[in-house]
Design brief:
By secondary structure, this protein is of the alpha/beta class. It folds into three domains: about 190 residues, 3-Layer(bba) Sandwich (FAD/NAD(P)-binding domain); about 130 residues, FAD/NAD(P)-binding domain; about 90 residues, Immunoglobulin-like (Sandwich), CATH 2.60.40. Helix content is about 20%, strand content about 35%. Strands 1, 2, 3, 4, 5, 6 and 17 form a seven-stranded mixed β-sheet that branches. Strands 8-15-9-10-11 form a five-stranded parallel β-sheet. Helix 3 packs parallel to helix 4 and helix 4 packs parallel to helix 5.
Length: about 425
């Protein structure tokens, strides 16, 4: 089966990309989704706070997703559910399987990768202790409570202060559980400030910064965890251990872009984000293959996912019309305090407006700013009261800046006073 555009993933990124590509005139679009309903992870995010930027309203996750699902239906976009993609080749041949169609072979002229991300599991943490029941990732617990209506436990400790962990601290409390503490290895939280206030402070849940769990104890079921303070090298400090009795441990220790298919396709991946290396058009190192959303880099707000995915859909449409020319572009480098940038290259000729460079910082910075340099010359500086790793930042470069520096060989983004 031949298709103009195949989008892998029917979550917020895949839906937004499909809608924008259809609005740009692409009729032959197919979305492949492995779950039994579109919407992705939003379907289990029943809390509000979504859509403030996109719709200027405060929506729950399912409500936000439904806006895009209804729009996709209105535009007649084909979505295959319960369909697992097994392979994507460099020449954009896709192998998928589902109970309804069996093995499905597709040939696409363009592909958008929108597979999202997954949680880092206990096996990646190397916490000593028994392999007892009662240890869940925060997202698994969220699905159990919000979709299946089942409580994972009653006496809870959460390791990691990512947004899912913070939200589940509140959710478990509202369901009658006792959340004893949220334990964070770093001296700062990796979640949004509003979630710290609304999910921890409002419910008097302790946030133990510069702490970690050094032992899990329990035979059949978790009985307790041992928490210790860590030093500046993140090593447990002897004598600071405390035992917290509990029957449930939730892990919120990071998200990993699901890029196994990207690797099969031959897409170059960033060693920092685990996502694809992309140009200003969100095109990967493989011609005609684009990436967006959490499979590209982990976002803080779903509104940013939708915005980025819409841009990917628009650029994929331009590619299919033969309007997107592949060039080397100007490399975008990370300077002091910046962990990564998206995109990694910018071709000024391919821009239809200002260039937006999205990034995260690697520490907490107060009363600093975001600077952009063209070949060592600072061309912009935006003062910020606070910069934190938990919130994504954006540096905007106007078209006139590129016009002023037509021979720029390198762009650098850094944090400085």
């Amino acid at each position: 089966m031949k298709k103009d555009l195949v989008i892998i993933g029917g979550g917020p990124a895949g839906l937004a990309a499909a809608i924008r590509a259809r609005e740009c005139g692409i009729e032959d679009i197919l979305v492949l989704e492995r779950d039994n309903a579109p919407g992705g992870i939003l379907n289990q995010c029943v809390h509000n706070g979504f859509g403030l930027h996109t719709f200027k309203q405060e929506l729950t996750g399912p409500e936000y997703a439904q806006r895009y699902i209804e729009k996709a239906k209105e535009l007649g976009i084909e979505i295959l559910l319960n369909t697992m993609v097994l392979d994507v080749s460099a020449d954009k041949k896709i192998t998928a399987v589902s109970p309804e169609t069996g093995v499905l072979e597709l040939e696409a002229r363009a592909v958008i990768l929108a597979m999202g991300c997954r949680e880092r599991p206990r096996g990646a943490l190397n916490i000593p202790g028994s392999r007892c029941a009662g240890v869940f990732t925060a997202g698994t617990a969220q699905r159990l409570v919000n979709i299946d209506g089942r409580m994972p436990g009653r006496e809870v400790v959460i390791l990691g202060s990512g947004d899912i962990g913070l939200i589940m601290a509140r959710r478990m409390t509202l369901e009658g559980a006792k959340v004893h503490a949220v334990v964070e290895l770093m001296p700062w939280s990796s979640g949004l400030k509003r979630n710290i206030v609304q999910c921890l402070d409002d419910y008097d849940i302790p946030l133990l910064l510069s702490h970690t769990i050094t032992k899990i104890t329990g035979r059949d079921r978790l009985e307790s965890v041992t928490v210790a303070e860590v030093d500046e090298k993140r090593r447990p400090v002897p004598g600071t251990e405390q035992v917290i009795p509990c029957d449930t441990l939730l892990l919120s220790v990071g998200l990993l872009p699901e890029n196994e298919l990207s690797q099969k396709c031959g897409v170059a991946l960033s060693p920092v984000t685990g996502g694809a290396v992309v140009s200003e058009s969100l095109e990967t190192s493989v011609d005609g293959v684009f990436a967006c959303g959490n499979v590209l880099h982990v976002h803080d707000l779903v509104d940013n996912v939708s915005k980025e995915a819409s841009a990917a859909g628009e650029k994929a449409a331009a590619y299919l019309r033969g309007e997107l020319k592949r060039t080397a572009g100007i490399p975008v480098k990370t300077g002091e305090g910046v962990r990564y940038t998206v995109p990694c290259t910018i071709d000024p000729a391919a821009l239809t407006g200002p260039a937006e460079i999205r990034f995260r910082v690697g520490n907490v910075y107060r009363d600093s700013g975001i600077s952009v340099y063209f070949d060592g010359e600072r061309v912009s500086h935006l003062k910020k009261r606070i910069l934190t790793p938990g919130e994504m930042e954006t540096a905007v470069i106007k078209a006139e800046t590129f016009a002023k520096y037509p021979n720029c060989r390198e762009i650098t983004v850094k944090v400085e006073a």
